[in-house]
Fold this protein.
Amino acid sequence: MIYKRNYRLSDVVAMICTPCALLLYLHLTLITHSMQRPLSELSNTRVSRENSDPDTGSQWRETTEFILSPKQTTLSLPLPPVHPFGPPLNVTGRGTADRLLYTPILQSGASSMKHLLGFLKKENHFKLITEPPQKTLVVHIEKDDVKARIVNKTSQLPGATALVHSFAYFEFDKYGGKQPIHISVVREPVDRAISLFYRVRAPYQVVERHTQFPELSLPKRSFLKKVRH
């Protein structure tokens, strides 16, 4: 009896990616070898000129050493123009010292950060407020009244507080509040997409989400088996 294996999509992707990775490694090796060859030829040329003509060789040696020496750091080269790119990425200095806002991103260390904040609140004596599970996450808030309501609730919290909420950065100052220290953790996009692909199909994740929201239908069998419809 001949057993015929049914290849899954992940198997096909692995069969394609493995030869591509080997070809890329070979390509980078050849490029590195070709870049090292001109330097060796230049060194051989310098030695031959020194042996043929002492005067010319010394001049050639000075020129070559000026080009290749790593100690030449006083060259006055024009710097490229600096173009403004939106608001500054690091705005920690503008934040209030007793207010921390952490924006979790799925499969980017969100659970680890929540556990870390839960441990640190006992050591550093601050409150931790996390948002409840939601069916869908609204990251980019467009309405100004919603932003003003968030700023108002955040400003009324007494004492040092850390908040865990999934919404994008916006200016608290424009709505009459103090800007908290806003942090987040990002991840390499491809690794995050692969991790998220398997997370949404994990049995514990399916059961947990169905327990929290019973009105949502269970995923299809083909979705859990990672095959096409």
About this structure: The radius of gyration is 29 Å.
